[in-house]
Structures are given as structure tokens and as C-alpha cells.
Amino acid sequence: MYTTDQYEGMLAETVAIRGGDGGRVLAYCARPLGSGPFPGVVLIHHMPGWDEWYREATRRFAHHGYVAISPNLYERFGHGSPEDVAAAVRADGGVPDDQAVADLEVSMQYLRALPYVNGKIGAFGTCSGGRYAVLVASRVNGFDAVVDCWGGGVVMPDDQLTPQRPVAPIDYTADLDCPVLGLFGTEDHSPTTADVAVHEEALKKHGKEFEFHMYEGAGHGFFYYHRPSYRQAQAVDGWDKIWAFLGQKLSS
């Protein structure tokens, strides 16, 4: 709860971390000023790229009391506008899952090593970032909560598997060891409502803790205020559910 006399401060900057392959990866970090300790969150960007929306989202998490890091998963494709870099990634078939998982594991470890982090780390992603959030939390130990916002490609038929994406994230469900919050729209085509239902059944089968919400009248990307896909009421409710979920799962 806010009061008009409380202290607020934030530090946000681009940093360079060592990626999973040992090379440089740029990341955008934001944290509240103060001694903390604060929970941490790894923000996993979408296919439109490492863009302004993810910078703003990173600062938004810091405003809500999290130490947040958003690594550039497209680092190996060079630099330019987020749209141009994302187009190059798309033309090449996407980032290999192993590479993305390695970079996200390093990002989680970076947060965990900071003296003002409380030892609890979450993962948040939208679109392909939601898929990566589920994937990395299933393949890597150390995440304490996952927020998957309309992550397409968690459920994948065999004919959609590629050298970059050889295993569907849902096939790792047995290894997932943290709770999942999922936010989806009924009008989305990736994932469809049927895909979400299959994912839900897999989580139930393996006894995992999860909380899924399906929003009527919303499609893919309903948080993106700068696009026609934005749905204000659903987005506001979705953010409220994110803060409640992470507040419960990542508290000291």
C-alpha cells in the first residue's frame, strides 16, 4: 500500500553478462534503491524482440519491489532496431532452445549472486518468452515461480519440432519444480484454448502447482497497450494476478 510520504527510488541500466556460451550478452536491469532484500525476476522477451515494452516491463517490476533482469536472447544476431533483429532471428528459424535456456540460467544466477536479492527468483515471459519461461523452469533448477503469458509452442505436435526446438516444453513437465501462473486469451491462435487445456492436463497429471486464467474477448498480446490487441480490463486484471502470485511465491 502506498503512502504519500514513502521513499521511492530506482536504478535502471544496461549491463553485460556472460552468456551460456561464454560470450557477451547485454541485459537490461532495474532494481529498487535500498538494502532490500528484494525478490528477483528474469524477464524473457517476445519474438518482436528485446524492445521498449520489455524495458518498461523491467522497470515496472522494479517499481513493484523486484530486482529485474531482461537479457537479450538475440545477442548473437547482431544489433539494430528490435524489429530488424527479430526478423533476422525469425528468418533463421529462431533461437536454439539450448542457447536460450543457458542464457536464462546465467541471468537467474546473476540475480541470485546479488547481495540485495532475497534468494527467490521468478521467470516472466510473454509470447515466445512465455514458452521459454516454462522451458527454462522445467530444465533448470533454481526458479521459484513462473509467469507464462500466452506462451505459444509449449504444446507442439511432432511436425512442428525443428533443430532449434527439438523437444516441446510440455514434455519436460515432470521436471518442473515450481508453481506456474498462466494468462491466456480465448481468441488466441497460439496457444489455442485446446493447447492450454492439454498443458493444464499435463500439469495435473504430474501433480504440479499451477493457476491458469482464460480471458474472454482477448487474443494474443492483450497486455500490449501500443497495439490493437490491447484489452484494458483483461490486462489490468492480469497484472493484478501477477503481483498477487509473485508476491506470495517470492516473499522471503
UniProtKB/TrEMBL annotation:
Protein's name in the database: Dienelactone hydrolase family protein
Record's keyword annotation contains Protein biosynthesis: no
Record keywords: Hydrolase
Cross-referenced InterPro entries: AB_hydrolase_fold, Dienelactn_hydro, Dienelactone_hydrolase-like
Native organism: Caldilineaceae bacterium SB0675_bin_29
Gene Ontology MF terms: hydrolase activity
Record-annotated Dienelactone hydrolase domain positions: 27-248
